Amino acid sequence: MQIPSFTSRSLRLLSTRALAVAATAGVVLIAACSAPPPPPPPTATAAPSAGVVKVATVGTFGASLVDASGKTLYTFANDTAGKSACNGTCAATWPALAAPAGDLGKVDGATGAFSVITRDDGSKQVAYAGRPLYRFAGDAAAGDAKGNGLANGAWKVAGVALPAASATPAAGSATPASTATAPKPAANAGGPDY
C-alpha cells in the first residue's frame, strides 16, 4: 500500500481551504457573540389588582368587591383613612387582603381608587377608597357574606360605591379590634359577632 505523497501545491491548496473554513467559522462566531441580546419578554401591563380584586354580585348587596376566589371583601368601621384597626387576634378572624407587588391599577366595575396601606406588622394591605379590605374567616364559599353586620354593624360588605374613608372611626363603631379577642368562627352560627 502506497501512502499518498503530498506536493507542496496540494499542501498549499489544503491549507487554503482549511484557512477559508476557519475564517468563515470565526466570522460566524464573532457575529453570534456580538449580536445584541434579544429583548426581554414584555412585562405584564395588566393591573395586578385584576387578579386580587374583582367586582361581583354578592347576594342582596349588589355589585361588591370580592377576592380572586370570589370570596366577599369587607370594610371595618373602626378603620380610618389608610389605617387598619384590625390587628393581632382580630386579623385571625378578619385576614387583611394582601397587596401584590406593583401597581394596583383599575378594576372593571369599581368606581373608587385602589391603594396599598402598611399595616402595624409591616405587611401591605389593599385599600379601596382609602378603606382597608378584609376577608372573613367564617365565609366558606364564594358569595358568602356571613360577616356583614357583625360587631354591631361595624363590618360591612365592601360595595363598589364606598364613600371615601374618614380620618376618624365611624361614630358608634365597635370596640377597637386590636384590643378585643376574636372568638373562632362558629360553624353553625355564621361566625363570631366581631
Question: Explain this structure to me?
Answer:
The protein is an alpha+beta fold and 194 residues long. The chain has a domain of 109 residues. The protein has 4 helices and 7 strands.
What is the gist of this entry?
By secondary structure, this protein is of the alpha+beta class. Helices cover 20% and strands 14% of the residues.
**Number of contiguous helices:** 4
The average pLDDT value, as a whole number, equals 75
Report strand order across the widest sheet.
4-5-6
> Per DSSP, what share of the residues sits in E-state strands of 2 or more residues?
5-15%
Shape: elongated
Computed CA radius of gyration, to the nearest angstrom? 32 Å
Low confidence ranges: 38-50, 173-194
Q: Order of SSEs, N→C?
A: HHEEEHEEEHE
SSE blueprint and pairings:
Blueprint (H helix, E strand, L loop, with lengths): L7 H27 L14 H4 E5 L5 E5 L6 E3 L13 H4 L20 E5 L5 E5 L2 E2 L17 H4 L1 E3 L37
Antiparallel strand pairs: 1-2, 3-7, 4-5, 5-6
Can you give keywords for this protein?
single chain, 194 residues, alpha+beta, two-stranded antiparallel sheet, 4 helices, 7 strands, 20% helix, 14% strand
